[in-house]
């Protein structure tokens, strides 16, 4: 039983660490697609980025 709990704990911590390094977005990053302009706009910091998919990096210069 203790081995199972340790395995679950290690797995959860490994997942959280992987998820943290997979993106640099913060909770404040809210990307909205502006199809007319063909770009994505962040509603928090007003950063704009031309991309086909939703951005996975924060473009906020203050961050």
List the helices and strands and how they pair.
Elements: H1 2-21, E1 31-34, E2 39-42, E3 48-49
List its salient traits.
63 residues; alpha+beta; three-stranded antiparallel beta sheet; 3 strands
Account of the 3D structure:
The protein is α+β, with helices and mostly antiparallel strands. Helix content is 32%, strand content 16%. It has a three-stranded antiparallel β-sheet with strand order 1-2-3, with no helix packed on it. A hairpin with a 5-residue loop joins strand 2 and strand 3. The longest helix is centred in the N-terminal third of the chain and has 20 residues. It is elongated and about 55 Å long. The mean pLDDT is 83.
Strand fraction equals 15-25%
Strand-pairing-aware structural class:
alpha+beta
Instruction: Report the span from N to C terminus.
Output: 44 Å
- Overall average pLDDT: 83
Query: What's the helix count?
Result: 1
Radius of gyration: 17 Å
* Helical residues, percent: 25-40%
Low-pLDDT runs? none
- Major beta sheet, strand line-up: 1-2-3
Judging from the principal axes of the Cα atoms, what is the shape? elongated
Largest sheet: 3 strands, antiparallel
Number of E strands = 3
Order of helices and strands: HEEE
